[in-house]
User: What shape does this take?
Amino acid sequence: MNKSMETVDLLVVGGGVNGAGIAADAARRGLSVLLCEQDDLASATSSSSSKMIHGGIRYLEHYDFGLVAKSLREREVLLKAAPHIIWPMRFRLPHLPSLRPAWMIRIGLFLYDHLARRATLPGSKGLRFGPDSPLKPEIKKGFEYSDCWVDDARLVVLNAMAAREHGATILTRTRCVRAVRQGDLWQAVLHDQAHDTKTEIQARAMVNAAGPWVQSFIEDSLHQTPPKHIRLVKGSHIVVPRLFEGTQCYILQNDDGRVIFAIPYEGMFTLIGTTDQEIFCCPEDAAIDDTERSYLIGVVNRYFKKQVAVSDIVWSYSGVRPLLDDESDNPSAVTREYYLAFEHDDGAPALLSVFGGKITTYRELSRTAVDMLEALFPDLPESSTATALLPGGGFETQAILRAEIEERCPWLPSDVAQRYVRSYGTLVWRFLGDKSALSDMGRDFGAGLYEAEVAYLRSEEWAVTAEDILWRRTKRGLFMSDAEKAGLAQWLASQAAM
Assistant: This one.
């Protein structure tokens, strides 16, 4: 970055969903924005969720009616904004008489249906499970309601792309190691960890969206006392071979009052999670442990005919949720609401720190955060993200887009075409539009991951390593052998050396 580009309106620290969302909203409103992320985009909490855009039905038990209503409203907005990576899903809740009574569930689902207007999603209903059900035969009754699935890591990348389309600079593998106030500007030092170089920039305002590191960033890089504190709660998930047919998700109650989701995942698998375990270590060291594996398997085996063992686990991941410390004794009861701490004294550059939050409300959080900067930028226009499409979202339905791909590219395998629809939407034409045969796609690294797609991810979506591509951008890591993964890593290394 040269000297003439050193001053920006807004420096965003953190490339998770909140940081990328704030960068996108601010850039849309005309602010000059620079976002720095110490690793890959969505490399921590934002790629380790349960992959749902949902109101959070269990939050009703903790009387978080406002949070649930806000989340349900956002569910409709996001479904329209990103129909390629977000789509409706029906959730089935088997009823066990020994747990929550049926009348309580009916009241909760009634509230869930009516706390916010539903434009597209059907309401809840009762169910009876027959002999063809994947559930154990003693489970006869249940309920069904609507929420949405999301590819969480791609949601972050698309927001970063939206920010870039409106002039923002996105720097991955770049850590903000120090920032001090000097007059009316922040003076920040950014460390490019890939090249081991440091750059100084100036910013009129700074957003601390460091997620699990929001508190430590204030203490270690800004040398200030944080206005709020967070609790680090680890949520772990396991992936096993498919437990049931169909596209519905199952929400499973447990004796401890928690619920576990069993969600169709990448066609051939079931995603099971999540746990809630408070941790006191560094967020980057969080990993699933034997207790969590046993907990998740125990809940699933209580419900399904097909039993799961530890040996069935093909992948697992753990994310650390930075929850606002509300002094709750139970990690599961800690609020998922967010808090925006805004410091802006006359003549001093502003600091806005994001504490807590959940992926479903990221857009509303981002809008509110940028609205607060109006104190510094008085001519700031209103947010447009309530109606804006995320990159790739400009199509009518997934079926229509898939038909268009198959018509224009009849040589493309149908499963690859379907994955492209649900990963890229209309962005697919950026690497597919000039191809006329499968041979034009270049090397197949395995599981239908072609060189043309990888090249696009490197040039347009900030992918650097095999992990970026296999586990965040595409999830192809579930289907590829160790040799195929190594081949991709070697190819990427050769390209980086060129």
